[in-house]
Structures are given as C-alpha cells and as structure tokens.
Recover the amino acids of this structure.
C-alpha cells in the first residue's frame, strides 16, 4: 500500500512552470449545470487539469500551448484553440449514442465507450414500469445474464438473484452496493428512490470488489438533487392494485375423490353422489389489495443539493391474516463546505411491519374434498392427516416488525489538478422483532374426541435480531488526460466490521390469549403440572453468517489511447476474519482490453455504424460467504445428561463437529469477450458477450466419514469442488421515432450451461452432494461431476405393468403390481433398488429471455414486458410426499384401470410405490410470462398548466397477468435460496397477478 | 483553489496497517474451541455427561426406528399401510439395501458416541482433579464406548477402530476380533472402578454401574458363545443382591419402575421433545386417538400367539384397540385398518401398539420422557439361565428361569407352571421362548435369533437370507465417502 501512495505523489508532483493562466467554467449544454471533474489537457503534452466541484478550472499555459482538449464521460470531446485567451467558458454537448452514456462502476464512473468490462444498466424509468414488490424484482426480464426468481408470493417475500448462473454451493446471491455501501440485499429500498442500477458481470468489472464479487455485483445509485435548482422539484405518485390468484390447480372434487378412494379401499364411500364437494383452494385464496404512495422533493442551493423521499408500501396476502407494510425515508444531501471540499450523506431508514400468515397452499392441496370445512354448529371440521387449513389460519398470530437503516457520510476533496480523495463511512443496521402466538385449541372429530389438530397449551415465542455493519472506505483518484492519452487510477483502502446478536424465547401456557398478555414475564407463563413458571426455550447468540471483519486494499488503472484503445488493470487484496491467519489474505487481479474499432478510419465507409467496440477481460474474484465458525473445531454445549429419579437434566458439553482450519478463499476465474454496437445513430444498439466462469476451491460442506464422530447429517466445510458456468448473453434494442409515434423494442437473452467439474477432490470425502429434501426427508437432488448443480435424481419410468406376463418379465420391486409404474433397471443387475436411481432432470434453464416493448403516441404511452425461460425441469415435490390419503391432482382421472387404459398414469393409490421419486414427477419448466402491461396517459400541457402541475400521468398496469407453460402448478417460477434445492415445487405460495391503477404528478 | 495535502489518507493507512491482524481476529462467540477443553474437573464432568447424550438420541435406537423388532417375527412395520412403506417397510421384508433408510444415521450416531467417550478417556486423565471422580468418569466413558462398539460389531462386523478424538479421514475396517478385544478391555477396566448401583447419590441414577458393566460384558461373551466367561459375570450381578424383579411386570418398563430395582442400565429422559427427551417411545406410541406417536413397530400376530394362555404379560406387551389404559380408551388411527385380512379372510394384521413404551399423560410430549431399559434384571436372569444350561448346570438354570416365570404369573398358581426339564436342548428352547415372551418388543429378538443360529429358519419366510442378513450392509454413504477404504459385507 505504501508504495502505491508514493507512486501517486510522484505523479502529482509534476513540474509547474507557469507562463500564463487560463481560467473558466465548464457546463453541460443540456441543462447548464456545471460539470465536475472534466479532463482538460493541453494538446500534444501530458499536462492538464480537471474542473472542480463548481465546474471551474485553472490551467497554466506555456509557450506554444495552443489547443486544449476537454473530455468528460458522457459528453462529446472538444478541442478549442486558446491562443491568447485568459478566460474560457465551455459548454460540453451530451453524447447522443448509448456508448457515450456514463456508467457507474465500482468507486467511480466511466463512459460506456471507455468501459472494458461487461456491465448492464437499468434506469429508473424501466424500474418503475412494473409494479415491483422490491427493487430486485424490477430487474426481472430486463437484463441479460440475470435470473430473478420470486421465492414466494407471500407479502414481503424476497427474490433469488443469480448472475451468470450458479457458481458455488453457498450463498449464490450477488452483492449490492448502494451509493457505496456494500450490502447483502436491497429489499428495504423503495424502487422509486433508485436512479439507476448497474449489474457488473465480468471479472474486469467486479474485481474491484475482489473478495465478494464472484457472484456479480449490483450497483445501485439513488436519486440526488441538483445544485442551483432553487425551485424544488416535487413528485407525487400513488398506485392502488388488486392481487388475485392467476390460476388454480386442477385437483379432484368430492365425487371424483370418492370414486378413486373406492377403487383403493372398496366401500369407503357408499354413495359417491352424496359426498360433500369442498374446494379448499377457493376457501383459502382471496383477492387482496396493495398500495404504494411516494413523495419526493429534490433541489439545491448555491452550495448544496438535496433529495428527500418518502414511500409507503402496503400489501395484503392473497391468503388471509398476512400483510406487509414498509415505510422508507430517503435523505441524500451534499454540501460544498469550502473550495474543493464537499461532504454529504446518503441515508435510508426503512421501518416495516409484517404479519406472516401460515402457508396453507400445501394443506389446501392435500385436504380431502369430501370433508366439510365446518360442522353444522359452525366449529371447524376435522381434516384428517392434514389439519383444517381454515383452523390453522384462524389461530395464526405471527408478527414481525423492525427497521433497517443504511447510509453513509462522505467527504470529497480535490487535491490539486489531478488528484482527488474520498472517504466514506457507511453503516447498515437492522433491528428485527418477532412474536408469534398460538392459542390452545382443538379441532374435534365428529364424535367429539380431539383430532390430531390441536394445541394443548398456548404458545408464545419472541425473537429479537440485531445486525450491525460499518464500512469505512478511503479512495484516492488520479486522473490525467492529454490529447491522445488518458489515465485514470483509483487506489483505496477499506475496512468492514459486521456484528449480530439474536435473542429468542418461547413459553407455554400464557395466562390469557389477549395480545396484552403476549409477554414472557414469568407471572404470565403458567406451568400447570409443576405450578412453576418456566420458559420453554431460550437462545442467545450470534448469526454465524453475520459476524466477521474484513480489510482490503484496491487499485484500478484505466488507460485510453486516442479514445480507441482501452486497457484496465484491477487489483484487490482482501483479508477476512473467516480464514485462519495463514490463509487470510487473497489477491484478486483482472486485466481487460477494449478497442473502439468503430472509430477507425477503415470503418468510415460504414457510416451507419455510429460506434462499435470489442472488449475482452480475464480476472479472478473471491468468495467467502461462509459462517465465521467453519474454521474452528468447537465444543458443543447442549448435550445434557439426564440422571436421577425424577429424571433431571444436567449440563453436558463435549467435542462438536470438527472444524477446518485450512479453509481458504474460493476463487472464480472468469473470461469474457464482448461486442457492443450502435447503429444508425442510436437506433439499433446492442451487446453480445460470451463468458466462461470457472469456480475453484468452492467452499462446500461435505459429509465426512461416520468414524470421525461428527454425527448423522453433519457436514464439514472444505475447499473441495469446482463448477463451470458458461453462456452467451445478448441485448438488442431498436429505438425509433416516427412523426407522432415513438417506440422501442428490446430483447435480452442468455444461454446458460452449468456443470460440476469436481466435488470432494483430494479430501477423501464424498463426491456427491445430496440435497433437495422433501417434507418427508427424502432427497431428490444429487449433485455430481458432469451434471448441473442440484440435478434431479430418481427412478426412470418406462410405462406401466399392463398384465401379469409383463410383471413377470421385468425386474420389479416386491411392492409393484399390475397397473403400477415400471421402473427402469438402470444398472442392469436384474433387480430394482436404490442403485437404479439416476439423473432425471435439471432445474437450471438453458435459455432465459425477456422482451420489452414501449411506444408512445401523443399523450399515450404503452409498454409491455414478456419474460421466460426454456429448458429447465420442475420436480413436483408436493405430489410425492404422501404418507396419508390426500386429495389427488387431476391427472388421476386418466389412471390405469385395466389393461391398455393408460401407459403413464398408474392405478390409483394413496401413496407408496408409485410415489417414489421418479421422472413421473418431472415436468418441463419452460414458460413465457406476461410480466407487465402498462397503458398511460400524460396530461397535455394546457391542462397541467391550469391545475398548477408540471406533469401529470395516469396509468393502468397489470403484472404477472398470464403465464404460458406446460407445468400444472401455481407457477413455473420456483426459486430457492439453497442452490441444491432449486426447482422443487413443495407447495409454493403462488405469485399473484396484480391489476393496478396509478397516478404520477410533478408539481410546478 | 488551495489543494489539500493528501496527508489524511496516508495517515489513515499508516495508523491502520499494524492493527490489521488484530482487526481480523474474530473469536467464536459463546463457544469454546476444542483446544481449550476439557481443562478442569467441571469440564471433565460436562464431557462425561455429554457422552450419555448419545443414548437418548433418536438415531441411536437403530437409526431412528426400532428396526430390530421389525426385522423379527415379533413386529410389523406399523403405522398406516402407506407410511414409510418403502423405507421402514424394507426392513420388515428384508428388502433393504446398503442405501437403506437409517443405516447411515445409526452408524454415524454410534461413532459420535464413541468420539464423545474418547474425549473423556483420552483427555480427562491429564486433568488435575479429584482422582476418584476422574477414574470414575473414565470408567463411565469406557462402559459407554463398549456399549456403542457392541452395537456396531453386532450389526456390521469389523468396523473402523477409533480410540482417539481425531482419527484419520481414511480408515479401513478392523477385524471383528479387534473390536471385541477393545470392548472386553474397556469393560474389564471399568468393572473394578465403577461404583455399585447404591453407591451413587440418587441424583446420579442412570450412570454406568459396576453391575451394568458386568451384565454388558456377560452379554458380550454370551453373544460370542463364550459361556464360561459369561457365567461368573452374570452370576455376580445376580448375587450382588442389588437387583430384583419388579413386583408388577408392567413396571419393568413403565414409569413407576424407572431406576427401580429391576433396572440395570436405562436411558434417562425427561419430558418434552428436546434436547432432554427421547423420541424412542413417541416413534412407537399409539397413533390416532389418543395421539401418543406414530405407531411404528407393531406387535405381530405371531407374537400374540407365543404367549401361554392367560399370561398377564400379553397385556403388558400389546395394546389392542378398545383397551382402556390409565382411564383412556385406545381408539387408534383412522387411516390404519383395525383388521387386515388376506384373500381367504384370515386375519394377517391387527391394529396394535407396543404397550412397553406407554407413558401416562395427556400429550405426545410425555412420551419423550420414557426411559428405555437397555439392560434389565429379567434379561440378566434369562442370560444366566442360558449360560448355566450351556455350561451343563441345568438345575441352576431352572432357578433363574422360573424366577422370571414366577413374577410373570402374578400369584396366579393356575398359569405359567415352572419349567422342570433338565434336558439341555429342551431347556435351551424353553429359555429362548421365555426370553421372547418376557423381553418382546425390547429390541432383543433379532439378535437372539442371529446368535443362536435360528434366524434362517425363523425369519426365512419373511425374506431373511442366511449368510447375508446376519449382518447389515456397511451404509452406502460410508462406502462412497471412503473411496475404497471400506469393504462391503458378503452378499451385500
């Protein structure tokens, strides 16, 4: 580090032999705003300067200096003759092409033209086009190489985000950098406070975040005010939406169920026409409202700029007794305190409240339609084996509330002509509180006895979780440009500390059911049997994934020659407390080259090519998203002995599972080759990238041999796997304006190939990762070399045993009979057993795409967004777990009932053999979804003038309106945070369709 | 413009650099690391207590389920017909394989217990503390280690031999003889050190005793056919005068007899599901109404037929639908047929439950307080009878056998007459038959059939293949992980 500083000082101390001084101000031709940090260089020399925070500059000219070059990201370069001048104000013109846009990169910005990495951007207009429940979701279908999957349709649920596939078995989520603060998620942000998001995909772009960039980086810039904008801009918007279930599952009605039951157990229902017909889905789902309100004020004074945003979001669940409410307060300020120095802050405070409903989808799926929800006296009817979903709902009282505060204070200083420095201190704090109460209750059998659905004593549990991170970042930037050379170097030093603490308590038999008594004060907890007050359980400790420190040094040098030839070198060195001292530090380099060949002379005859660039990058990025405890062999302390009469627990503690002190950084090596173009002056722009990401030394938890004594199911973390992801990403946008109609069509597409290259390696441990556990503990994914991560695993079927002769002729399990599935003897040993299970599908799509269309005509605007994926499979896990007689999916109507009646749907049975995990439950997960349709109308000027508005727009919007898919579940979009359990439909909470109406106003 | 010297960032770097490593050292919160444990007398007690936690673990009991009785002629899978039909059902039909459900969990849990015992055996002797306690702790741990290895060696044969806390990652199978040598050495070392049952303070009931170690070692010798070695050990337990039969048969396994006079080694468990309870009884408890559990391990029709007329132990072993226990009528499970018949109308299964795990109470949580008796005095008497008969002392054998029958008859002179035969073969059969009745549903039957060479004849019709099913397969997971270091048992 110290060498680096000296180097910077040396450059800064360039000789200053003054002859004549030229001063002036550089502004934007667009809005007259001053431009900060414009590169000014003397043509033919290496001398130059940059503008200060007010756009002012001062440069010493020598004998023979005649021309100055003004260059600035996003603006046309200008060369101006300055002979004899002492003052010169310059207006720079915004570059018309996409490639001229400024792009935010880590610790700086760069013109798209000068960018050597693969970065996708999304602007606030696009973010606001869809009713997004959270900021992550607004990326869905809009950015190539990014897969966003909503994990659940429950209010407040998050989304899983994967950039360029799944490269690790750990947390595969990208990191988010909001105004310079590094975060794990951005669910707290109000989407309308966001001005842009940039997705850094290749190593050249992410290496500056070295240690944590391996899964990609999402940079989020929030909105700011403008200096000198004395008249504040006030925006107001209000949206009201209704959510409803997009589609229902085809389940059997009462009569069909009774018929099938009679086939399985003759005589179950004497008169199938007289059984009840309860539609449980209809009983649990309802339409539900959601509402968004936003107000923002932005402006600035002579020396300051500010942005204030307030948002309120409220969503009810389509299953009752659930809602989510979030408020966001956003404050971005910047003050110039003295010449060349400014300070500021970006702060978001987001309190939220949530009621978490029980997820009843699985229960409604299983509940027999021949049972009535209520007895004639109005009490809940028994639902055998499942529990009455309506009773579960009515006794559910589960609340969460908390606040998340994220922000930073920063100071920027200009340190001479070419050097500037920035220090930023950021925090991410959250406090979360939960309480759940279940009263004592019992659902009775028809004979008045207590059914299996009961709660003997009321239960109350409470939890507090505190998370606390601070991050201190210090960077120094050196910028220097001459006529042909342009150098931009950033160096820095950062430190981070993350702490957490959880406290969870639960008690039983609370004095009263009333919320006023939902406290775990001993007098309110009554243990009748012992007549003493006891807490049922207590936990106090840290969240092992949120307890670490980190320290890093970073350096990036970008060089451009003649605006055509680009090179970037990035280096980051990280130290993490998660590794033992000898493995603590990792170094993550990247190198990238770019060539704006569109500017070469030989391209002149293709005058329809406005810009074109090729770029290539290679780099190495790290990952350490593991528990801070993994390296330690710990003592487990909850191992009580129970002695004496009466049985009395006494504390016990001994060796817990072994640790691995040799853990080291997981590294991803990524190569990217990209092509960018801009044809017909911005009409047809696009990008094409090929990438290959190889992740080595993956930090993976592996089963260890039993004789190590780690205990059943316990795994120890090793650096022991490698995975490759490769694909092609494609973005294309056609933009065109006719006389009164403007329109654009954008297409994003990406292919993805995911393959495990190694597991276990030299550690003498297992070579297979088992995952995807269903509700009955049965695993249905097996990850092994040569297959994608989380590949489905089970029996292959080959039709149905039609008769005794077939049964006799083929190997089969002893349970198999005529009318049952025929499993393939994969290993050919003449018998069917667990060894015949094999690869039966992949949850990872081959191809992801999105299509976005926008048009405007006079005051009307229209936009449509489609999104989809092809080539992944879904495992219908909810249909497999059947220990008891449950309702059936509609396909049972086509069951085998005699020779030749079906070759795919076996004879009816409540569970057992035909429900062993097999390819019978594998479904094509390809889909095309109408993500959103919006029709808007902007009020004409004469109307807005009259009512004192600058702008007014009304719109109608539909989200998730329709999905085209062969899959029969609620949604083919099935996400999981656990990469080994992807694509398993275990009864997902459906993602609702939303119909919304909104208004957006800008005050005059 | 007056530039500011870049002194601030430089200062920051210089000041923070030396603090780097300190800043990056983050110690585990509220958890000790193994390097610092056990280091005191109280640590030694903690480690010893923890070695007992394994016997309460669900997977300790044959991998979560009482597989062993299901694998015998005494029990069916249980629960409703569909429940666990492919996992647990495979043990009923002897169609399980090396991937069989629960095998790997059983294996891993036994080794976990062994490592916990090894912590005490290898680390505690170096601690400066009360030497009497120190020696007792080590002896307790050696008893437990022998208990765990005995399960392993009976089930799998020769297994990896682990006597340290940090065994190598790759380890092959030791011979069966090596494992037995360790078991015998551990128990022989523990016997002189362990206190007798009455020498423990009442709060320590449930710890390994001299009697428990003698009985276990006797059982080990019996299992191996070393009757002469078994005899003095079993007789020592009987003659110690510290043990007797409960007056009521039901108390031998019930709540009232916990840590009672018949209990030689039992698994203490407190109510509530975790971490101090034991799910063993919940697994087998009455399914449906009253809801006491899952209803696995269902007493079979064959077991019912084994009892002599009016043997009171039948009702102490099998719960039938309609029985009233502690004032509660057993209604059973709606999804389980009360009676299952074959094509010709013969009853092949009835909805029954294991009476020996019944716990009075009002909910499932009380079931978790059941104390499983791993060794009880009736077992010791019957083992002694068997050993004495083999050692050609039939008259002595009859005394112990008839003592068990006498308690069973509950003073009703009209039933269960004393056995009188002194013919070695007939007496052997009588003793084994008495073991089956007295100890039914307690996890002995399968091992008794295997060790007496009768498994093929008795269990053959259920799918047992002689030469194969005497041993379980090494769990496939362990085979895979070992990458060739482990060799599979024959025919698997």
């Amino acid at each position: 580090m110290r060498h680096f500083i000296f180097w910077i000082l040396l450059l800064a101390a360039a000789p200053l032999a003054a002859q004549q001084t030229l001063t002036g101000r550089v502004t934007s031709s667009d809005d007259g705003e001053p431009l900060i940090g414009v590169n000014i260089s003397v043509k033919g020399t290496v001398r130059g300067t940059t503008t200060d925070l007010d756009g002012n500059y001062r440069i010493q000219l020598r004998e023979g200096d005649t021309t100055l070059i003004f260059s600035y990201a996003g603006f046309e370069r200008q060369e101006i003759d300055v002979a004899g001048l002492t003052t010169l104000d310059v207006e720079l013109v915004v570059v018309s092409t996409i490639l001229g846009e400024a792009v935010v990169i880590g610790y700086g910005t760069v013109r798209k033209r000068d960018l050597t990495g693969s970065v996708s951007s999304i602007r606030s207009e696009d973010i606001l086009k869809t009713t997004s429940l959270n900021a992550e979701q607004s990326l869905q279908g809009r950015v190539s190489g990014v897969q966003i999957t909503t994990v659940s349709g429950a209010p407040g649920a998050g989304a899983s985000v994967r950039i360029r596939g799944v490269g690790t078995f750990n947390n595969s989520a990208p990191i988010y950098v909001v105004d310079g603060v590094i975060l794990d998620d951005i669910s707290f942000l109000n989407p309308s406070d966001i001005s842009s998001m940039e997705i850094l995909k290749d190593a050249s772009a992410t290496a500056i975040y070295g240690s944590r960039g391996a899964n990609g980086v999402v940079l989020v810039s929030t909105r700011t005010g403008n200096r000198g904008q004395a008249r504040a801009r006030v925006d107001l918007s209000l949206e009201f939406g209704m959510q409803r279930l997009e589609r229902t599952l085809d389940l059997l009605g009462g009569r069909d169920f009774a018929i099938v039951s009679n086939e399985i157990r003759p005589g179950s229902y004497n008169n199938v026409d007289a059984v009840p017909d309860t539609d449980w889905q209809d009983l649990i789902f309802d339409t539900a409202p959601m509402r968004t309100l936003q107000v923002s004020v932005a402006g600035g004074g002579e020396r300051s700029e500010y942005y204030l945003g307030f948002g309120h979001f409220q969503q009810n669940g389509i299953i009752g007794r659930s809602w989510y409410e979030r408020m966001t307060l956003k404050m971005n300020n910047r003050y110039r305190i003295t010449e060349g120095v400014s300070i500021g802050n970006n702060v978001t405070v987001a309190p939220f409240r949530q009621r978490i409903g029980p997820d009843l989808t699985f229960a409604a799926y299983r509940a027999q339609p021949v049972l009535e929800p209520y007895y004639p006296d109005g009490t809940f009817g028994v639902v055998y084996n499942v529990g009455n979903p309506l009773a579960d709902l009515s006794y559910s009282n589960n609340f969460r509330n908390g606040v998340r505060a994220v922000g930073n204070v920063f100071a920027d200083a200009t340190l001479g002509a070419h050097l500037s420095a920035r220090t930023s201190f950021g925090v991410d704090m959250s406090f979360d509180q939960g309480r759940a109460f279940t009263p004592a209750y019992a659902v009775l059998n028809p004979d008045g006895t207590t059914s299996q659905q009961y709660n003997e004593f009321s239960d109350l549990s409470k939890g507090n979780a505190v998370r606390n991170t601070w991050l201190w970042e210090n960077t120094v930037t050196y910028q220097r440009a001459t006529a042909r050379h342009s150098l931009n170097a950033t160096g820095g030093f950062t430190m981070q500390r993350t702490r957490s603490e959880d406290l969870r308590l639960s008690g039983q038999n609370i004095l009263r059911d009333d919320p006023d008594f939902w406290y775990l004060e001993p007098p309110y907890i009554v243990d009748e049997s012992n007549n003493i007050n006891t807490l049922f359980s207590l936990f106090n400790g840290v969240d092992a994934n949120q307890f670490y420190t980190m320290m890093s040094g970073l350096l990036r040098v970008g060089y451009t020659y003649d605006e055509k030839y680009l090179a970037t070198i990035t280096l980051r060195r990280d130290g993490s407390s998660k590794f033992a001292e000898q493995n603590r530090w990792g170094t993550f380099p990247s190198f990238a080259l770019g060539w704006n060949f569109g500017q070469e002379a030989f391209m002149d005859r293709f005058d329809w090519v406005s810009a074109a660039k090729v770029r290539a990058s290679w780099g190495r990025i790290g990952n350490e998203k593991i528990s801070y405890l993994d390296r330690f062999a710990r003592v487990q302390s909850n191992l009580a002995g129970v002695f004496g009469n009466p049985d009395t627990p006494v504390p016990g503690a001994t060796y817990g599972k072994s640790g691995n002190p040799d853990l080291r950084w997981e590294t991803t090596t990524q190569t990217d080759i990209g092509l960018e173009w801009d044809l017909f002056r911005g009409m047809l722009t696009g990008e094409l990238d090929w990438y290959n990401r190889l992740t080595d030394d993956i930090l993976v938890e592996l089963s260890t041999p039993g004789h190590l004594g780690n205990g059943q199911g316990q795994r120890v973390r090793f650096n022991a796997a490698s995975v490759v992801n490769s694909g092609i990403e494609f973005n294309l946008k056609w933009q065109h304006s006719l006389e009164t109609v403007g329109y654009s069509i954008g297409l994003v597409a990406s292919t993805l190939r995911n393959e495990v290259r190694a597991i276990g390696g030299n550690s003498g441990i297992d070579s297979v990762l088992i995952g995807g556990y269903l509700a009955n503990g049965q695993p249905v994914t097996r990850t092994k070399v040569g297959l994608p991560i989380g590949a489905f695993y089970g029996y292959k079927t080959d039709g149905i045993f039609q008769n005794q002769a077939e049964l006799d002729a083929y190997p089969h399990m002893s349970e198999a009979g005529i009318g049952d599935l025929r499993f393939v003897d994969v290993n050919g040993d003449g018998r069917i057993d667990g060894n015949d299970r094999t690869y039966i599908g992949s949850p990872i799509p081959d191809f992801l795409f999105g299509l976005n269309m926008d048009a405007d005509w006079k005051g009307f605007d229209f936009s449509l967004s489609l999104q989809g994926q092809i080539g992944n499979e879904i495992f219908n896990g909810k249909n497999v777990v059947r220990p008891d007689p449950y309702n059936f999916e509609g396909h049972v109507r086509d069951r085998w009932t005699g020779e030749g009646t079906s070759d795919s749907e076996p004879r009816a049975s409540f569970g057992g053999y035909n429900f062993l995990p097999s390819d019978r439950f594998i479904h094509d997960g390809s889909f095309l979804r109408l993500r959103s349709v919006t029709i808007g109308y902007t009020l004409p000027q004469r109307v807005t003038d009259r009512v004192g508005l600058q702008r007014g727009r009304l719109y109608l919007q539909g989200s998730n309106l329709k999905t085209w898919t062969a899959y029969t579940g609620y949604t083919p979009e099935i996400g999981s945070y656990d990469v080994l359990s992807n694509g398993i439909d275990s009864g997902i909470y459906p993602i609702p369709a939303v119909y919304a109406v909104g208004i957006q106003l800008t005050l005059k | 413009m007056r530039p500011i010297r870049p002194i601030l960032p430089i200062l920051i770097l210089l000041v923070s650099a030396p603090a780097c490593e300190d800043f990056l050292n983050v110690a585990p919160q509220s958890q000790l690391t193994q390097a610092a444990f056990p280091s005191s007398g109280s640590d030694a007690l903690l480690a010893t207590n923890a070695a007992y936690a394994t016997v309460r673990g669900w997977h300790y009991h044959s991998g979560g389920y009482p597989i062993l009785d299901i694998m015998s002629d005494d029990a069916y899978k249980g629960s409703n017909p569909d429940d666990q039909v492919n996992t647990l059902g495979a043990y009923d039909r002897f169609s399980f394989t090396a991937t069989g459900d629960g095998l790997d969990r059983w294996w891993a849990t036994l080794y976990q217990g062994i490592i916990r015992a090894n912590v005490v055996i290898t680390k505690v002797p170096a601690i400066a503390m009360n030497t009497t306690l120190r020696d007792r702790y080590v002896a307790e741990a050696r008893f437990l280690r022998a208990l765990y290895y005995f399960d392993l060696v009976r089930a799998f044969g020769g297994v990896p031999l682990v006597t340290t806390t940090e065994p190598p990652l790759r380890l092959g199978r030791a011979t069966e003889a090596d494992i037995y040598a360790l078991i015998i050495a551990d128990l022989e070392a523990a016997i002189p050190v362990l206190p007798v049952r009455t020498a423990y303070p009442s709060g320590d009931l449930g710890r390994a005793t001299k009697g428990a170690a003698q009985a276990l070692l006797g059982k080990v010798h019996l299992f191996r056919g070393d009757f002469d070695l078994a005899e003095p050990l079993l007789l020592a337990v009987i003659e110690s005068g510290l043990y007797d039969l409960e007056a009521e048969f039901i108390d031998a396994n019930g709540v009232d007899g916990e840590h009672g006079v018949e209990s030689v080694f039992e698994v203490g468990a407190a109510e509530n599901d975790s971490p101090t309870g034991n799910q063993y009884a919940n697994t087998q408890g009455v399914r449906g109404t009253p809801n006491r559990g899952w209803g696995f391990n269902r007493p079979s029709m064959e077991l019912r037929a084994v009892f002599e007329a009016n043997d009171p132990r039948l009702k102490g072993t099998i719960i039938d639908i309609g029985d009233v226990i502690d004032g509660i009528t057993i209604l059973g499970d709606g999804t389980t047929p009360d009676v299952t018949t074959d094509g010709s109308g013969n009853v092949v299964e009835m909805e029954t439950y294991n009476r020996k795990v019944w716990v009075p109470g009002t909910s499932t949580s009380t079931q978790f307080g059941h104390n499983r008796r791993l060794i009880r005095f009736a077992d010791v008497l019957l083992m002694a009878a068997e050993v004495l008969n083999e050692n050609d002392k039939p008259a002595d054998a009859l005394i112990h056998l008839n003592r068990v029958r006498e308690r069973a008859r509950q003073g009703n002179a009209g039933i269960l007459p004393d056995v009188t035969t002194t013919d070695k073969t007939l007496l052997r059969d009588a003793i084994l038959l008495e073991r089956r009745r007295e100890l039914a549903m307690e996890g002995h039957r399968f091992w008794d059939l295997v060790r007496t060479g009768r498994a093929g004849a008795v269990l053959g019709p259920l799918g047992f293949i002689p030469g194969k099913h005497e041993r379980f397969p090494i769990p496939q997971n362990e085979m895979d992980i070992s990458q060739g270091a482990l060799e599979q048992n024959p025919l698997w």
Observations:
- Chain B has a mean pLDDT of 91.
- Chain B has 19 helices and ten strands.
- The CA atoms of residues 381 and 400 of chain B lie 5 Å apart.
